[in-house]
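Q: Structure tokens for this one, please.
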Amino acid sequence: MPSLKKVVFLFSVIAMAFTACSGSKNFTVTNIKNDLAVKFYLNDGSTDSGIILQNQNNIITYVSETDHERTTVNTADIRRVEKLDIIYDYKANEISKAEIDKTKSSRNTWGYAIGGAFIGAAGGLAVGLPLWYADVDQIPPYFYAGAGAVAGSIFFAVRGQEKDRQDAIREIRIQRLTDQNLQKELDSEKQKLDEIEKEKEKLEKELKKKEKDN
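A: Here is the predicted structure, written as tokens:
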């Protein structure tokens, strides 16, 4: 029977194997991607925050949190960029964590967790079987498979959670944009009706004036 220390060490090794390829990068202008919330520190001393719409040909297009309008900035005018933890919709209005949690499903979390368990178990067997058959280690292969399944399940479940979160954010953004466009159409129709009503009142006044003159 393997010792607790060996099993703990085994979990650590397998978890490290899953995360070996992931690394952090410094956030620079070239890292600015669509839908990110950022804060710009400009060369003229001013700052602005918003959601990125496009980063192309040294021109960054974003919606400003200040006036909720689309604007552009040249990358040469940016002194520093800070990635924000705020989640914006496409009018640079904040989306709350409560709204995200309410919209978020667990579909990807469970799917990734189950898939990760199979992948981890297969990886654990791939490590444990050669050692077992070579009589190098006294730990049975199923311990490697079990440890790999747990590590793989946790590792991929975390990524599934993030996928569910991103899907919820995208759904909220699209829904808000749809609502905003619908509101614009309603406002436009109301304005047209108001103009028609004013024109009608004007014609009625002219008609009454003519009748009076006659």
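A few notes: The helical segments are 4-19, 97-103, 107-133, 141-213. Strands lie at 37-42, 47-56, 59-64, 70-74, 78-83.
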